[in-house]
Amino acid sequence: MEAVRALIAVVVLVLLARSARLAWRHRHISRRVWRAVRPQHVAGSVGLLAVVLATLASLLAFVPGAWIGLGSLVGLTGNAVFAPLEGVALAGGDEASGLARPPLWAVGTAMGFLVLLVALLPWLAFVEERIFREGLEQASLPRELWSALRFGLLHLIMLIPLGAALAIAVAGFIYGRIYRRAYARSRQRAAERQRAAKRSRAAEREQADPVPPGTGWPAPAPVGPTVGQSRAEAVLAATVWHTTFNTLVVVLVGVALLLEWALPA
Predict the structure, then answer these.
(1) Which domain holds residue 43?
(2) Which residues, 6 or more positions from 248, have their beta carbon under 8 angstroms from its beta carbon?
(3) Rounded distance between C-alpha atoms, residue 131 and residue 235, angstroms
(4) Is residue 235 part of a domain?
C-alpha cells in the first residue's frame, strides 16, 4: 500500500506540473480571478463549505456505502491532490522519525506545496467551469442537476468517497446558479445599452438633414456584450466563487498541518 500511495503522489505531482505550464500560459485568467475576489466571496464560500460538509456528514451517516471510494482501496482518506503531503509533513512524524511532531523542514515543504497549489486553483477552476457550466443559461432544472452531478462524480478520480463526490455536486449546482445569474445580468446590460443606442440614433435622425431617397441609414453596430461575451463573463463569475471555495479548503488544510506541528499529540 505504501508503494501505491507513493505512486499516486508522484502522479499528482506530474499532473500538477502539466497544469502549471498551462496556467502560466493563461496567467491573465488567474490575474482576473484574483482581482475579482471580494469579501462576499469569502463569506459565501464559508457558508457553502458548511453546506457541503453537512451534506457529506449526512450521506456518510445515513447512506450505506457512501464512504466507499477508490481511495479506500489504497488507504487514502482524503483528496488525492493532497497525497504528496502524506509523504512529507505527515510521514515525517512519529512513525517515520520518532519525533514528537513533524520536522520543521517537512512542514515548510508542505506549506510550499500548498502555496503552489493555490496559485493553480484559478486555472483549474476555470477549466471545470468552462466544461460544466458554460451553456447552462437556458438549461432546465433536470439538466442543471445532471450537470452538477457529473461535476461531483468527476471528482471520484481524486480518490474521494462517493459521499464526498455527491456533496461536491451540491457546490456544482450553486456554481451553475451563479453562472446563470451572471449571464442574465450581462444580457440585461446589453439590452439596456441597445435601447439607449436606439434612443440616441432616433434623436440624431430628428436633428440630421433628410436622408436622400434610397440610401437609408447604416445598420447599427452591435452595442454591449455579445452572447459569447456574456457566457465568458458568467464563466468568470463562477470561476471566482469556485476558486475562493477551493482556496478556503486548501487554507484550512494548511492550518491543520500547522496546528499538528505546533500542538503535537
Answers:
(1) 2-190+223-262
(2) 42, 45, 46, 49
(3) 10
(4) yes
In this predicted model, what pLDDT tens digit does every residue of 178-225 receive, in sequence order? 999 999 999 998 888 888 877 777 777 667 655 555 555 455 555 568
Residues sharing a CB contact under 8 Å with residue 76, sequence separation 6 or more, in sequence order:
5, 8, 83, 86, 159
- Identify the burial level of 105 via C-beta atoms within 10 angstroms of its C-beta, where 0-12 means exposed, 13-18 middle and 19 or more buried: exposed
Angle, helices 227-262 vs 162-207, to 10°: value is: 140
What is the C-alpha separation between 250 and 67, in angstroms, rounded? 22
CA distances from 199 to 31, 196, 203, 219, 225 (A): 37, 5, 6, 15, 18
For residues 182 and 250, give the distance between their C-alpha atoms in angstroms, rounded to a whole number: 26
Residue 15 is assigned to a structural domain of this protein? yes
CA max distance for the chain? 95
pTM of the model: 0.87
Distance from the Cα of residue 112 to its chain's centroid: 21
Q: Considering the domain boundaries, does residue 242 fall inside one?
A: yes
**How many distinct structural domains can be found in the chain?**
1
Residue 156 is assigned to a structural domain of this protein: yes
Task: Determine the Cα–Cα distance for residues 48 and 246; give it in Å rounded to an integer.
Answer: 11
